[in-house]
Amino acid sequence: MEKKYTLVVFTEDKVGLLNRITIVFTRRHINIDSLTTSESEIHGIFRYTIVAKATPEMMKKVVDQIEKLTEVLRAFYYEAQDVVTQELALYKISTANITPMESLIRESSVRILDIEKEFIIIEKTGSRQEVLTLFEQLKPYGILQFACSGQVAVTKPMKELETYLKELNQAVEASNKIRSWKLKN
Amino acid sequence: MEKVSGADAVLLSLIEEGQDTVFGYPGGAVIPLYDSLYFKQDKIKHVLARHEQAAVHEAQAYAQITGKPGVCIVTSGPGATNAVTGIANANMDSVPLVVITGQVGSYFLGTDAFQETDVFGLSMPIAKWSAQITKAEDIASTMAKAFYIAVSGRPGVVVLEITKDALTSKTDFVYKKAPVLRSYAPYPKIADEVIDKAVEMINEAERPLILLGHGVLIARAEKTVKEFIEKSGIPFGSTLMGLTALPSDHPLNVGMLGMHGSYAVNMLTNKADLIIAIGMRFSDRVTGKLSGYAKNAKILHIEIDKSEIDKNVPVTLAVHGDLKSALSYLTPRIEKKTYNNWRKEFDKFYQMERTQVIERDTRSNEPLIQMGEPVAMISQKTDGNAVVITDVGQNQMIAARYYKFRIPGTFLTSGGLGTMGFGLPAAVGAAVAQKKLPVILFTGDGGFQMNEQELGTIIQENIPVKMVILNNSVLGMVRQWQNMFQGKRYSQTDLINPDFIKLADAYGIKAKRVEFREDLNSAIDEMLSFDGPYLLDIKVDKDMKVMPFIAPGSTVDEMKLVSND
């Protein structure tokens, strides 16, 4: 059965890595629901948050193939209950019909970012569902533009990135020992 | 420190890596590199192919024979796109290559400049790693990284795209081999508990079967594997790519796995209670229908590439690591055993295959020569002392089935990608890589024509490649499928061929045609004793089928021994 998964991928800061990662999905004909990337808490290490639907077996294979990429540090996948996620959405709405909209804006815990004569721009942070609900509510008033960030996520069970780096460091040292052994034998 | 050009830095890097041979083809974007090469001809020999695809196949064969990464230089644009098939082929068969391609000047990138193509982007899905270099000062460090990545762990192809201005500008040259990369630990540590469990599984098994893959040859672990097998007493089969890991006539060898492999090992795979897969990836050509594969067996998978574990066949226990070190832990701890009754079961099936297939294929009474006859004859005459290369299709399967191998690494073929046209250039690469053993190519008339321009490379290099065209004037393997599954509708598989003797003659290569069985023996003797390249065009039966056969969608034990008509 297909489920929605959140992947967290830590990588070096290299040109082309985004392409390499998405190729793993493309090859298996998996659509990416959303993808965000930014520098992590450690300078020089990037964090990708990718949401996609697949069977558990398929997702394990995808993550293994992503982790195999030379400049990927670690890759993980999580089910919904293990991640805290949030999205940010911006709505540009026509002011032609502003009066009946007022109460909706007031009740929706949004921020008003800009007010002009012809339009108003509001920001909503919340779950995908909350963002979409507001979209439906605003629709009758005329949405001129809508942009949504895609999901950012932090995970509940994951170790600190520092810990992973230490483990990787040990793995590299162990690997070098085996390599030296191989070169001798 | 004296500054060098980027082009010099490339060649100095090759010298640092102990590389003395490159394969390639010049073009606009790599003129600076070839100019630098002109001054270093004493240190680096360049083999001039006649097509970039062939250059990459040549470098691949060179790598497989020498155990060093193969190096290839091609120009930007069409040079690089031509190389793509070779790159995909080598990567799929885990052969280490460093492919250096030219690129337009960095100021032209992305403008559709003359002979610009996005090599970096093109290479991504088909290479282990790739990089675009736009500055001379990045060349040495990237080359060091490239060689390290190409050859370590599960080897593969690294593609380096270097812009023309990076080749011409000046830089300091400092080289540090095998740089530490924090994201890359190619040789995973194997936990003691895993070895304990593996030992237990092996010692408890009653009907175990070992499967050897290309990994054994890549790890250069033939001796380690032999010790493991001989102590364990467990019968083994091998994949097409792992065929030469142990000699064909080893008493525990029960044959080649998969679609066109041996009857015994396929029929008995589902009777085994333990499968020990060593350096192989359970390709679909090996497993047949997955849901009916190894139904009664626990699976112990010794594999260096984590993404291969559980990919096709779910495993009971994975030993994730270098197989040579894994086996060196396992061998001392397993019990010395024999499985005589189990081993004998394979013989029963082998006898069926021998009388119903092998005899007919290799000592035929059919009016026309069967492909297996020249292969068996050459096998017997060379006694395993040859490097055997194949193209793809019936010629490949027949060579794999009937040549008896003795020396590890003496069989080169295109396994994963199944690239027609691989054979002739691979034979060139193997002949450049070593002079000790004769290089014998078994090819079809179709595949030969996909890279026949390499006859030019053969005469330029003056290498004694023995080319055996198993000529049935059809695309035999596709035709066999059309015969078996498409109601004998032979759609586009008949070939009108040139006169291969005249073709060879145009290159000054000695050649002979054999049409009748009685001429075969003497023609092969003449070819083998001839000092220099030789082409033997053997007319063979186009209706021969490679049997036994696991039809697509069938399970391993549904293998058909003979064809219905």
Largest interface: A-B, 31 and 32 residues
Integer average pLDDT of chain B: 97
Report the sheet with the most strands of chain B, covering strand number, pairing sense and barrel closure. Answer: 6 strands, parallel
Question: What is the CATH superfamily classification of the largest domain in chain B?
Answer: Thiamin diphosphate (ThDP)-binding fold, Pyr/PP domains
Mean pLDDT, all residues of chain A? 92
| Quaternary status | heterodimer
Assign the CATH topology of the largest domain in chain B: Rossmann fold
End-to-end separation of chain A: 47 Å
Distance between the termini of chain B: 75 Å
What does this structure look like?
The complex is a heterodimer of chains A (185) and B (565). Chain A is an alpha+beta fold and 185 residues long. Chain A folds into two domains: 1-78, ACT domain (Alpha-Beta Plaits, 2-Layer Sandwich), CATH 3.30.70.260; 84-148, ACT-like. Chain A, domain 2 (Alpha-Beta Plaits, 2-Layer Sandwich). Chain A has helices at residues 17-27, 56-68, 98-107, 128-138, 161-184; strands at 3-12, 32-39, 45-54, 72-78, 83-94, 111-115, 119-126, 143-148, 152-155. Chain B has 565 residues and is of the alpha/beta class. Chain B has three domains: 4-171, 3-Layer(aba) Sandwich (Rossmann fold); 192-345, Rossmann fold; 367-540, 3-Layer(aba) Sandwich (Rossmann fold), CATH 3.40.50.970. Chain B is built from 22 helices and 20 strands. Chain B has a six-stranded parallel beta sheet, with helices on both faces. Chain B has a six-stranded parallel beta sheet with strand order 11-10-9-12-13-14, sandwiched between helices. The longest helix of chain B is centred in the middle third of the chain and has 23 residues, at 340-362. The chains are: A alpha+beta (185), B alpha/beta (565).
Offer a few descriptive terms.
heterodimer, A: 185 residues, alpha+beta, Alpha-Beta Plaits, 2 domains, five-stranded antiparallel beta sheet, four-stranded antiparallel beta sheet, 5 helices, 37% helix, B: 565 residues, alpha/beta, Rossmann fold, 3 domains, six-stranded parallel beta sheet, 22 helices, 20 strands, 38% helix
